[in-house]
Design brief:
Elements lengths: L8 E2 L19 E6 L7 H10 L10 E3 L4 E3 L20 H6 L3 H4 E6 L7 H19 L7 E3 H4 L8 H7 L3 H16 L10 H28 L3 H24 L7
Parallel strand pairs: 1-4, 2-5, 2-6, 3-5
Antiparallel strand pairs: 3-4
Helix pairs in contact: 4-7, 8-9
Bound molecules: zinc ion (ZN).
Length: about 260
């Protein structure tokens, strides 16, 4: 059990719309830390702006955090995860780091900052909700959270706009999330280890065939010259592979490439 220190308020955008296309996210592989880049704007203010402009532009994020509230405007922690468009598709850093595009496989969380906001309180909620997201999706908070400015350095500076006001480096932020994760899972009974035979049965019976099917579809799409479809199949295959390795880890077995 994870310590639920704060409420996460679902306030979903109407969809299907440009900002909320209502496309299920097949799996969650990592998290992207953002700030709003709009000093003084609140979580509620950002979400109502998104709702009003839902058919004007595709840009979106799953969650907004300020000093009062954590609001989820695209289902991620309060409902079955859907895609949000929070990092442009043509950057390749996410593919290099995690084997997939952020919009297809990552949660996007926005930190509000600026005048009239108590940034320390907002940051506390932000760190907690990122730790909780890692817990929910089996991610490692030390390695599976990146920043928008890391993925898209030529265009983006977030979440460092807000972190600079706090005097925090990105590394200190990651250490804060790791500490929060540990605190919120403390006292949890040691998880019983997964039996290796059970893990291998799940991998061999369901995951390997799924991976092979996706890989075949990828090859077919490549041969048909459909690079977009090929890339999508490759991402799904990478995710299945990652899941299989998580099962291997949990059952004390060596990972495969
Ligand atoms: Zn951003």
């Amino acid at each position: 059990m994870f310590k639920m220190k704060f409420d996460i308020v679902p306030r979903y955008l109407s969809g299907p719309s440009k900002r909320r296309p209502c496309i299920p996210m097949p799996g969650v592989r990592f998290m992207v830390a953002h700030d709003t880049g709009n000093p003084g704007s609140t979580a509620a203010g950002n979400v109502s702006y998104y709702e009003r402009s839902r058919n004007e532009t595709t840009a979106s994020a799953h969650i907004f955090v300020d000093d009062q509230e954590i609001i989820e405007c695209i289902p991620f922690l309060t409902g079955a995860a859907e895609k949000a468009y929070h990092v442009v598709y043509n950057v390749t850093t996410d593919n290099e780091l995690y084997g997939c595009n952020s919009n297809d496989a990552a949660g996007g969380v926005e930190l509000c900052y600026g005048p009239r906001l108590n940034l320390k309180e907002a940051y506390k909620r932000y760190v907690w909700v990122l730790a909780y997201a890692c817990y929910r999706y089996g991610l490692n908070p030390a390695t599976d959270i990146t920043g928008h400015y890391i993925l898209d350095p030529s265009r983006k500076t977030d979440p460092m706009n807000a972190f600079q006001l706090l005097g925090k480096t990105f590394e200190q932020f990651i250490a804060d999330v790791v500490a929060e994760y540990q605190e919120c899972t403390k006292g949890e009974a040691e998880e019983p280890m997964l039996n290796a035979g059970v893990a291998n049965t799940v991998i061999d019976t369901w995951m390997s065939p799924a991976w092979k099917e996706l890989d075949t579809k990828r090859q077919e799409a490549e041969q048909a010259g459909d690079g977009t479809a090929a890339a999508a199949y490759e991402q799904q295959a990478n995710y299945v592979h990652w899941l299989a390795n998580e099962l291997r880890k949990a059952s004390g077995q060596p990972l495969t490439k």
